[in-house]
Design goal:
Its main location: cytoplasm. It is found in: Cytoplasm. Involved in cell wall formation. Catalyzes the final step in the synthesis of UDP-N-acetylmuramoyl-pentapeptide, the precursor of murein. 34% of the residues lie in helices and 20% in strands. The longest helix has 16 residues. It starts with 6 loop residues before the first helix and ends in a 6-residue tail after the last helix. By secondary structure, it is α/β, with parallel strands linked by helices. It has a 6-stranded parallel sheet with strand order 7-8-6-9-10-11, sandwiched between helices. Strand 18, helix 15 and strand 19 form a beta-alpha-beta unit. The radius of gyration is 24 Å and the shape is globular. It folds into 3 domains: 78 residues, Udp-n-acetylmuramoylalanyl-d-glutamate--2,6- Diaminopimelate Ligase, Chain: A, domain 1; 211 residues, 3-Layer(aba) Sandwich (UDP-N-acetylmuramoyl-L-alanine:D-glutamate ligase), CATH 3.40.1190.10; 128 residues, Mur ligase, C-terminal domain (Protein-Tyrosine Phosphatase, Chain A, Alpha-Beta Complex).
Protein backbone atom coordinates (compact mmCIF):
# COMPACT_ATOMS: atom_id res chain seq x y z
CA UNK A 1 0.00 0.00 0.00
CA UNK A 2 1.02 3.65 -0.37
CA UNK A 3 0.58 4.22 3.35
CA UNK A 4 -0.08 1.57 5.97
CA UNK A 5 -3.13 2.62 8.02
CA UNK A 6 -3.62 1.55 11.61
CA UNK A 7 -6.66 -0.43 12.68
CA UNK A 8 -8.07 2.71 14.29
CA UNK A 9 -7.65 4.57 10.97
CA UNK A 10 -9.40 1.77 9.07
CA UNK A 11 -12.30 1.96 11.51
CA UNK A 12 -12.50 5.72 10.91
CA UNK A 13 -12.24 5.37 7.12
CA UNK A 14 -15.04 2.79 6.98
CA UNK A 15 -17.22 4.23 9.72
CA UNK A 16 -16.76 0.93 11.53
CA UNK A 17 -16.36 -0.13 15.16
CA UNK A 18 -13.08 -1.65 16.36
CA UNK A 19 -14.35 -4.59 18.43
CA UNK A 20 -10.99 -5.77 19.72
CA UNK A 21 -9.95 -3.43 22.53
CA UNK A 22 -6.26 -2.60 22.47
CA UNK A 23 -5.71 -4.13 19.02
CA UNK A 24 -2.97 -2.38 17.11
CA UNK A 25 -0.71 -2.77 14.10
CA UNK A 26 -0.57 -1.38 10.59
CA UNK A 27 -2.31 -2.86 7.57
CA UNK A 28 0.25 -3.81 4.90
CA UNK A 29 -2.21 -5.03 2.25
CA UNK A 30 -5.89 -5.80 1.65
CA UNK A 31 -7.35 -9.11 0.48
CA UNK A 32 -10.84 -10.47 -0.15
CA UNK A 33 -9.54 -14.01 -0.70
CA UNK A 34 -7.89 -16.03 2.08
CA UNK A 35 -5.81 -17.84 -0.53
CA UNK A 36 -3.93 -14.63 -1.36
CA UNK A 37 -3.49 -13.22 2.15
CA UNK A 38 -0.01 -12.07 3.09
CA UNK A 39 1.17 -11.58 6.64
CA UNK A 40 -0.12 -8.24 7.90
CA UNK A 41 -3.09 -8.09 5.49
CA UNK A 42 -6.56 -6.84 6.26
CA UNK A 43 -9.09 -9.52 5.31
CA UNK A 44 -12.36 -8.21 3.87
CA UNK A 45 -14.92 -11.03 3.57
CA UNK A 46 -17.49 -10.45 0.83
CA UNK A 47 -20.86 -12.11 0.42
CA UNK A 48 -22.53 -13.45 -2.71
CA UNK A 49 -25.57 -15.50 -3.60
CA UNK A 50 -23.71 -18.76 -2.96
CA UNK A 51 -20.82 -17.83 -0.67
CA UNK A 52 -19.99 -15.84 2.44
CA UNK A 53 -16.38 -14.89 3.09
CA UNK A 54 -17.12 -14.62 6.82
CA UNK A 55 -17.06 -18.44 6.89
CA UNK A 56 -13.33 -18.35 6.12
CA UNK A 57 -12.25 -16.12 9.00
CA UNK A 58 -10.20 -18.89 10.60
CA UNK A 59 -8.38 -19.45 7.30
CA UNK A 60 -7.53 -15.75 7.27
CA UNK A 61 -6.09 -15.97 10.78
CA UNK A 62 -4.00 -19.01 9.88
CA UNK A 63 -2.69 -17.22 6.77
CA UNK A 64 -1.36 -14.35 8.89
CA UNK A 65 -4.04 -11.69 8.54
CA UNK A 66 -3.59 -8.67 10.81
CA UNK A 67 -7.32 -8.11 11.22
CA UNK A 68 -10.60 -8.41 9.39
CA UNK A 69 -13.67 -6.37 8.59
CA UNK A 70 -16.92 -8.07 9.49
CA UNK A 71 -20.64 -7.50 9.35
CA UNK A 72 -21.13 -9.57 12.52
CA UNK A 73 -18.86 -10.36 15.44
CA UNK A 74 -17.18 -13.73 14.94
CA UNK A 75 -15.65 -16.24 17.32
CA UNK A 76 -12.15 -16.05 15.87
CA UNK A 77 -8.92 -14.93 17.52
CA UNK A 78 -8.41 -12.02 15.15
CA UNK A 79 -8.97 -8.27 15.64
CA UNK A 80 -12.28 -7.31 14.02
CA UNK A 81 -13.74 -4.06 12.72
CA UNK A 82 -17.51 -4.23 12.43
CA UNK A 83 -19.05 -2.43 9.44
CA UNK A 84 -22.53 -2.34 7.94
CA UNK A 85 -21.44 -3.64 4.53
CA UNK A 86 -18.01 -5.10 3.78
CA UNK A 87 -18.33 -4.37 0.05
CA UNK A 88 -18.96 -0.67 0.70
CA UNK A 89 -16.15 -0.67 3.24
CA UNK A 90 -13.82 -2.05 0.58
CA UNK A 91 -14.80 0.90 -1.62
CA UNK A 92 -14.21 3.36 1.24
CA UNK A 93 -10.70 2.04 1.81
CA UNK A 94 -9.97 2.10 -1.94
CA UNK A 95 -11.13 5.72 -2.19
CA UNK A 96 -8.95 6.66 0.79
CA UNK A 97 -6.00 4.86 -0.79
CA UNK A 98 -6.56 6.67 -4.10
CA UNK A 99 -6.37 9.96 -2.17
CA UNK A 100 -2.83 9.07 -1.09
CA UNK A 101 -1.67 8.80 -4.73
CA UNK A 102 -0.23 11.85 -6.47
CA UNK A 103 0.66 10.21 -9.80
CA UNK A 104 -1.14 10.28 -13.14
CA UNK A 105 -4.38 8.32 -13.32
CA UNK A 106 -6.08 7.33 -16.58
CA UNK A 107 -9.33 5.35 -16.73
CA UNK A 108 -11.05 3.70 -19.70
CA UNK A 109 -14.56 2.42 -20.22
CA UNK A 110 -16.72 1.50 -23.21
CA UNK A 111 -18.56 -1.46 -24.70
CA UNK A 112 -15.57 -2.74 -26.65
CA UNK A 113 -11.85 -2.10 -26.84
CA UNK A 114 -11.32 -1.38 -23.13
CA UNK A 115 -8.74 -4.08 -22.53
CA UNK A 116 -6.76 -3.26 -25.67
CA UNK A 117 -6.79 0.45 -24.86
CA UNK A 118 -5.68 -0.39 -21.31
CA UNK A 119 -2.68 -2.35 -22.60
CA UNK A 120 -1.73 0.23 -25.23
CA UNK A 121 -2.09 3.15 -22.81
CA UNK A 122 -0.11 1.31 -20.16
CA UNK A 123 2.69 0.80 -22.68
CA UNK A 124 2.73 4.52 -23.51
CA UNK A 125 2.64 5.55 -19.85
CA UNK A 126 5.56 3.21 -19.17
CA UNK A 127 7.70 5.32 -21.50
CA UNK A 128 7.90 7.83 -18.64
CA UNK A 129 6.36 6.35 -15.53
CA UNK A 130 6.35 3.18 -13.46
CA UNK A 131 2.72 2.26 -14.15
CA UNK A 132 0.12 0.11 -12.44
CA UNK A 133 -2.19 -1.53 -15.00
CA UNK A 134 -5.47 -3.30 -14.23
CA UNK A 135 -4.79 -7.04 -14.30
CA UNK A 136 -7.08 -9.46 -16.12
CA UNK A 137 -10.75 -8.61 -15.75
CA UNK A 138 -10.50 -6.84 -12.36
CA UNK A 139 -12.62 -3.99 -13.68
CA UNK A 140 -15.93 -4.29 -11.81
CA UNK A 141 -17.25 -3.08 -8.43
CA UNK A 142 -14.90 -5.50 -6.66
CA UNK A 143 -11.96 -5.59 -9.08
CA UNK A 144 -11.57 -1.81 -9.49
CA UNK A 145 -11.21 -1.15 -5.73
CA UNK A 146 -8.73 -4.02 -5.45
CA UNK A 147 -6.74 -2.57 -8.34
CA UNK A 148 -6.57 0.84 -6.65
CA UNK A 149 -5.41 -0.87 -3.46
CA UNK A 150 -2.56 -2.42 -5.47
CA UNK A 151 -0.89 0.98 -5.87
CA UNK A 152 2.57 0.91 -4.32
CA UNK A 153 5.05 3.70 -3.44
CA UNK A 154 7.06 2.96 -6.61
CA UNK A 155 4.10 3.62 -8.90
CA UNK A 156 4.01 6.94 -10.70
CA UNK A 157 0.94 6.34 -12.88
CA UNK A 158 -2.10 4.07 -13.03
CA UNK A 159 -4.12 2.77 -15.98
CA UNK A 160 -7.49 1.61 -14.69
CA UNK A 161 -10.09 -0.32 -16.71
CA UNK A 162 -13.73 0.11 -15.70
CA UNK A 163 -16.40 -2.32 -16.86
CA UNK A 164 -20.13 -2.51 -16.21
CA UNK A 165 -23.14 -4.69 -16.91
CA UNK A 166 -25.84 -2.45 -15.39
CA UNK A 167 -26.75 1.20 -14.94
CA UNK A 168 -24.77 3.00 -12.23
CA UNK A 169 -21.78 0.68 -12.08
CA UNK A 170 -19.38 3.08 -13.82
CA UNK A 171 -20.46 5.92 -11.53
CA UNK A 172 -19.56 3.72 -8.56
CA UNK A 173 -16.07 2.70 -9.69
CA UNK A 174 -15.20 5.97 -11.43
CA UNK A 175 -15.98 7.88 -8.23
CA UNK A 176 -13.31 5.82 -6.48
CA UNK A 177 -10.81 6.14 -9.33
CA UNK A 178 -11.12 9.93 -9.98
CA UNK A 179 -9.01 9.86 -13.16
CA UNK A 180 -7.11 12.81 -14.53
CA UNK A 181 -7.92 11.52 -18.00
CA UNK A 182 -10.95 9.46 -18.96
CA UNK A 183 -11.26 7.49 -22.21
CA UNK A 184 -14.64 6.39 -23.59
CA UNK A 185 -14.09 3.95 -26.44
CA UNK A 186 -17.61 3.39 -27.83
CA UNK A 187 -21.10 2.08 -27.22
CA UNK A 188 -22.33 -1.08 -28.95
CA UNK A 189 -24.99 -3.70 -28.07
CA UNK A 190 -23.32 -5.56 -25.18
CA UNK A 191 -24.75 -6.63 -21.80
CA UNK A 192 -28.18 -5.55 -23.09
CA UNK A 193 -29.77 -7.97 -20.64
CA UNK A 194 -28.48 -5.90 -17.73
CA UNK A 195 -28.77 -2.44 -19.24
CA UNK A 196 -32.15 -2.81 -20.93
CA UNK A 197 -31.29 -0.60 -23.91
CA UNK A 198 -28.33 0.79 -25.81
CA UNK A 199 -29.34 4.30 -24.64
CA UNK A 200 -28.84 3.12 -21.07
CA UNK A 201 -25.41 1.79 -22.02
CA UNK A 202 -24.47 5.23 -23.38
CA UNK A 203 -25.67 6.95 -20.22
CA UNK A 204 -23.80 4.51 -18.00
CA UNK A 205 -20.52 4.70 -19.90
CA UNK A 206 -20.88 8.48 -19.80
CA UNK A 207 -20.78 8.32 -16.00
CA UNK A 208 -17.00 8.30 -16.35
CA UNK A 209 -17.19 11.91 -17.58
CA UNK A 210 -18.71 13.02 -14.27
CA UNK A 211 -15.81 11.54 -12.26
CA UNK A 212 -12.84 13.06 -14.11
CA UNK A 213 -10.97 15.47 -11.83
CA UNK A 214 -11.48 19.23 -12.28
CA UNK A 215 -9.37 20.60 -15.17
CA UNK A 216 -8.98 17.02 -16.37
CA UNK A 217 -9.46 15.69 -19.89
CA UNK A 218 -12.11 13.48 -21.47
CA UNK A 219 -11.17 11.48 -24.57
CA UNK A 220 -14.23 10.79 -26.76
CA UNK A 221 -14.90 8.75 -29.89
CA UNK A 222 -15.90 11.21 -32.64
CA UNK A 223 -17.23 8.33 -34.75
CA UNK A 224 -19.70 7.15 -32.12
CA UNK A 225 -23.43 7.85 -32.40
CA UNK A 226 -23.44 9.24 -28.84
CA UNK A 227 -20.48 11.59 -29.29
CA UNK A 228 -22.61 14.76 -29.20
CA UNK A 229 -24.42 13.58 -26.05
CA UNK A 230 -21.12 12.92 -24.29
CA UNK A 231 -19.67 16.22 -25.50
CA UNK A 232 -22.53 18.15 -23.90
CA UNK A 233 -21.99 16.20 -20.68
CA UNK A 234 -18.28 17.12 -20.61
CA UNK A 235 -18.60 20.91 -20.78
CA UNK A 236 -16.59 21.36 -17.55
CA UNK A 237 -13.62 19.39 -18.91
CA UNK A 238 -11.04 19.58 -21.63
CA UNK A 239 -12.14 17.32 -24.49
CA UNK A 240 -10.01 15.70 -27.17
CA UNK A 241 -11.63 13.43 -29.75
CA UNK A 242 -10.36 10.54 -31.86
CA UNK A 243 -11.62 8.59 -34.84
CA UNK A 244 -11.79 8.58 -38.62
CA UNK A 245 -14.36 11.35 -39.10
CA UNK A 246 -13.44 14.90 -40.04
CA UNK A 247 -14.41 16.20 -36.60
CA UNK A 248 -11.80 14.05 -34.80
CA UNK A 249 -8.83 15.85 -33.23
CA UNK A 250 -6.64 12.74 -33.51
CA UNK A 251 -6.98 10.56 -36.59
CA UNK A 252 -5.13 8.25 -38.98
CA UNK A 253 -4.40 8.30 -42.67
CA UNK A 254 -2.63 6.01 -45.16
CA UNK A 255 -3.82 2.92 -43.26
CA UNK A 256 -2.41 -0.38 -44.49
CA UNK A 257 -3.97 -3.48 -42.88
CA UNK A 258 -2.64 -7.04 -42.77
CA UNK A 259 -3.06 -10.19 -40.69
CA UNK A 260 0.06 -9.29 -38.70
CA UNK A 261 -0.89 -5.71 -37.88
CA UNK A 262 -1.54 -2.26 -39.29
CA UNK A 263 0.64 0.58 -40.48
CA UNK A 264 -0.67 4.13 -40.56
CA UNK A 265 0.18 7.76 -40.16
CA UNK A 266 -0.93 9.02 -36.76
CA UNK A 267 -2.24 12.58 -37.09
CA UNK A 268 -2.04 14.51 -33.82
CA UNK A 269 -3.28 18.10 -33.35
CA UNK A 270 0.19 19.56 -33.98
CA UNK A 271 2.20 16.84 -35.77
CA UNK A 272 2.13 13.48 -37.52
CA UNK A 273 4.15 10.30 -37.09
CA UNK A 274 4.19 6.88 -38.76
CA UNK A 275 3.13 3.93 -36.57
CA UNK A 276 3.51 0.19 -37.10
CA UNK A 277 0.98 -1.53 -34.85
CA UNK A 278 1.30 -5.27 -34.16
CA UNK A 279 -2.48 -5.53 -33.68
CA UNK A 280 -4.69 -6.41 -36.64
CA UNK A 281 -7.91 -4.68 -37.57
CA UNK A 282 -9.25 -1.22 -38.21
CA UNK A 283 -10.87 -1.30 -34.77
CA UNK A 284 -7.43 -1.58 -33.21
CA UNK A 285 -6.21 1.42 -35.19
CA UNK A 286 -9.11 3.32 -33.61
CA UNK A 287 -8.08 2.00 -30.18
CA UNK A 288 -4.57 3.29 -30.83
CA UNK A 289 -6.01 6.70 -31.73
CA UNK A 290 -7.83 6.83 -28.38
CA UNK A 291 -4.57 6.15 -26.60
CA UNK A 292 -2.69 8.72 -28.69
CA UNK A 293 -5.29 11.34 -27.86
CA UNK A 294 -5.04 10.61 -24.12
CA UNK A 295 -1.24 10.58 -24.19
CA UNK A 296 -1.15 13.83 -26.13
CA UNK A 297 -3.33 15.47 -23.48
CA UNK A 298 -0.79 14.36 -20.85
CA UNK A 299 2.04 16.00 -22.75
CA UNK A 300 3.63 12.91 -24.29
CA UNK A 301 5.62 13.53 -27.46
CA UNK A 302 4.85 11.82 -30.75
CA UNK A 303 8.09 9.84 -30.34
CA UNK A 304 6.94 8.49 -26.95
CA UNK A 305 3.45 7.72 -28.25
CA UNK A 306 4.86 5.87 -31.26
CA UNK A 307 7.25 3.85 -29.08
CA UNK A 308 4.52 2.89 -26.62
CA UNK A 309 2.06 1.83 -29.31
CA UNK A 310 4.65 -0.19 -31.20
CA UNK A 311 5.95 -1.99 -28.11
CA UNK A 312 2.54 -3.26 -27.02
CA UNK A 313 1.68 -6.86 -27.92
CA UNK A 314 -1.69 -8.52 -28.46
CA UNK A 315 -3.81 -9.21 -25.39
CA UNK A 316 -4.34 -12.90 -24.70
CA UNK A 317 -7.57 -14.01 -26.33
CA UNK A 318 -7.92 -10.81 -28.38
CA UNK A 319 -7.07 -11.68 -31.99
CA UNK A 320 -4.10 -13.55 -30.58
CA UNK A 321 -2.36 -15.44 -33.38
CA UNK A 322 -1.17 -19.01 -32.95
CA UNK A 323 -0.31 -22.02 -35.11
CA UNK A 324 -2.57 -25.06 -35.35
CA UNK A 325 -1.46 -28.67 -35.09
CA UNK A 326 -2.04 -29.12 -38.82
CA UNK A 327 -0.35 -25.87 -39.83
CA UNK A 328 -3.48 -23.73 -39.73
CA UNK A 329 -3.32 -20.10 -38.67
CA UNK A 330 -5.63 -19.62 -35.67
CA UNK A 331 -6.80 -16.28 -34.36
CA UNK A 332 -7.86 -16.72 -30.74
CA UNK A 333 -10.47 -14.03 -30.12
CA UNK A 334 -12.33 -16.02 -27.49
CA UNK A 335 -11.92 -13.57 -24.59
CA UNK A 336 -15.37 -12.08 -25.16
CA UNK A 337 -17.80 -11.09 -27.89
CA UNK A 338 -20.58 -8.75 -28.93
CA UNK A 339 -22.03 -8.17 -32.42
CA UNK A 340 -19.72 -5.23 -33.23
CA UNK A 341 -16.56 -6.96 -32.11
CA UNK A 342 -17.61 -10.08 -34.04
CA UNK A 343 -17.96 -8.08 -37.24
CA UNK A 344 -14.65 -6.30 -36.61
CA UNK A 345 -12.91 -9.64 -36.17
CA UNK A 346 -14.51 -10.96 -39.38
CA UNK A 347 -13.02 -7.94 -41.17
CA UNK A 348 -9.59 -9.19 -40.05
CA UNK A 349 -10.34 -12.78 -41.12
CA UNK A 350 -11.32 -11.42 -44.52
CA UNK A 351 -7.70 -10.31 -45.06
CA UNK A 352 -6.44 -13.90 -45.02
CA UNK A 353 -5.44 -15.81 -48.13
CA UNK A 354 -6.65 -19.36 -48.56
CA UNK A 355 -9.74 -20.77 -46.88
CA UNK A 356 -11.23 -18.57 -44.13
CA UNK A 357 -13.23 -20.28 -41.38
CA UNK A 358 -15.24 -18.58 -38.67
CA UNK A 359 -15.58 -20.69 -35.52
CA UNK A 360 -18.40 -19.25 -33.44
CA UNK A 361 -19.74 -19.62 -29.92
CA UNK A 362 -22.77 -17.88 -28.47
CA UNK A 363 -22.74 -14.19 -27.53
CA UNK A 364 -24.20 -13.75 -24.06
CA UNK A 365 -26.29 -11.11 -22.26
CA UNK A 366 -28.06 -9.75 -25.35
CA UNK A 367 -31.58 -10.11 -23.95
CA UNK A 368 -34.47 -10.04 -26.40
CA UNK A 369 -32.12 -9.05 -29.24
CA UNK A 370 -30.03 -12.22 -28.95
CA UNK A 371 -31.40 -14.12 -31.96
CA UNK A 372 -31.39 -11.03 -34.19
CA UNK A 373 -27.78 -10.28 -33.29
CA UNK A 374 -26.63 -13.81 -34.06
CA UNK A 375 -28.43 -13.71 -37.41
CA UNK A 376 -26.62 -10.44 -38.09
CA UNK A 377 -23.21 -12.07 -37.54
CA UNK A 378 -24.10 -15.02 -39.79
CA UNK A 379 -25.22 -12.67 -42.55
CA UNK A 380 -22.13 -10.49 -42.15
CA UNK A 381 -19.80 -13.47 -42.45
CA UNK A 382 -21.60 -14.56 -45.62
CA UNK A 383 -21.48 -11.03 -47.08
CA UNK A 384 -17.73 -10.85 -46.43
CA UNK A 385 -17.22 -14.08 -48.42
CA UNK A 386 -16.07 -16.17 -45.46
CA UNK A 387 -15.92 -19.72 -46.83
CA UNK A 388 -17.11 -21.67 -43.79
CA UNK A 389 -18.92 -21.07 -40.50
CA UNK A 390 -18.61 -23.67 -37.72
CA UNK A 391 -20.61 -23.01 -34.57
CA UNK A 392 -21.92 -24.35 -31.31
CA UNK A 393 -24.44 -23.05 -28.80
CA UNK A 394 -28.22 -22.67 -29.12
CA UNK A 395 -28.09 -19.04 -30.27
CA UNK A 396 -25.35 -19.63 -32.83
CA UNK A 397 -27.62 -22.06 -34.65
CA UNK A 398 -29.47 -19.03 -36.04
CA UNK A 399 -26.16 -17.62 -37.32
CA UNK A 400 -25.45 -20.88 -39.16
CA UNK A 401 -28.92 -20.83 -40.70
CA UNK A 402 -28.40 -17.24 -41.87
CA UNK A 403 -24.98 -18.14 -43.29
CA UNK A 404 -26.45 -20.97 -45.38
CA UNK A 405 -24.23 -23.30 -47.42
CA UNK A 406 -21.01 -24.42 -45.69
CA UNK A 407 -22.49 -23.55 -42.30
CA UNK A 408 -22.09 -26.30 -39.69
CA UNK A 409 -23.64 -26.41 -36.23
CA UNK A 410 -22.70 -28.86 -33.46
CA UNK A 411 -24.10 -29.69 -30.04
CA UNK A 412 -20.88 -29.02 -28.15
CA UNK A 413 -17.28 -27.73 -28.37
CA UNK A 414 -15.85 -31.24 -28.54
CA UNK A 415 -17.76 -31.94 -31.76
CA UNK A 416 -16.57 -28.61 -33.19
CA UNK A 417 -12.96 -29.52 -32.39
CA UNK A 418 -13.32 -32.97 -33.93
CA UNK A 419 -14.82 -31.54 -37.13
CA UNK A 420 -12.11 -28.88 -37.48
CA UNK A 421 -9.33 -31.37 -36.78
CA UNK A 422 -10.59 -33.57 -39.62
CA UNK A 423 -11.42 -30.88 -42.17
CA UNK A 424 -8.82 -28.09 -41.81
CA UNK A 425 -5.22 -28.03 -42.99
CA UNK A 426 -2.21 -25.85 -43.63
CA UNK A 427 -3.22 -22.71 -45.53
CA UNK A 428 -6.53 -22.38 -43.69
CA UNK A 429 -7.13 -19.45 -41.35
CA UNK A 430 -9.48 -19.92 -38.39
CA UNK A 431 -11.05 -17.17 -36.31
CA UNK A 432 -12.36 -18.55 -32.99
CA UNK A 433 -14.69 -16.22 -31.11
CA UNK A 434 -17.53 -16.18 -28.59
CA UNK A 435 -18.49 -14.74 -25.25
CA UNK A 436 -16.44 -15.89 -22.28
CA UNK A 437 -19.35 -18.07 -21.16
CA UNK A 438 -19.12 -20.00 -24.44
CA UNK A 439 -15.64 -21.29 -23.52
CA UNK A 440 -14.31 -21.16 -27.07
CA UNK A 441 -10.76 -20.83 -25.70
CA UNK A 442 -11.02 -24.58 -25.08
CA UNK A 443 -11.41 -25.11 -28.83
CA UNK A 444 -8.27 -23.03 -29.42
CA UNK A 445 -6.29 -25.07 -26.89
CA UNK A 446 -7.41 -28.32 -28.51
CA UNK A 447 -6.44 -27.19 -32.00
CA UNK A 448 -3.22 -25.29 -31.23
CA UNK A 449 0.24 -26.71 -31.82
CA UNK A 450 1.46 -27.70 -28.37
CA UNK A 451 5.11 -27.32 -29.39
CA UNK A 452 4.70 -23.69 -30.45
CA UNK A 453 6.37 -21.16 -28.15
Amino acid sequence: MLRNPSLAEIAEITGGELLSEGAHGQCLAVSTDTRTIQKGSLYIPLKGDRFDGHNFAENAREAGALAMLTERELAVDLPQIKVKDTLLALADIAAWHRDQFNGRVVAVTGSAGKTTVKQLMGSVLNQRYKTLITQGNLNNHIGAPLTLLSLQPEHEAAMIELGASAVGEIAYTARLTRPEVGILTNVVPAHLEGFGSIDNIALTKGELIDAVTPSGTMVLNADDHYFTQWLSRATALNVISFGFSDRADVTAKDICESLTGSEFTLVLPDESVSVSLSLSGLHNVRNALAVAAAASSLGFSSVEIKAGLEQSAAVAGRLERCKGQRGQVIFNDAYNANPESFCAAIDVLKLAEGRRILVMGDMGELGDAATTMHVRVGNYAKDQSIECLVATGPLSKSAVEAFGDNGHWFENREAVTEFLTKTTKSGDTLLVKGSRSAGMDQVVRSLADKEED
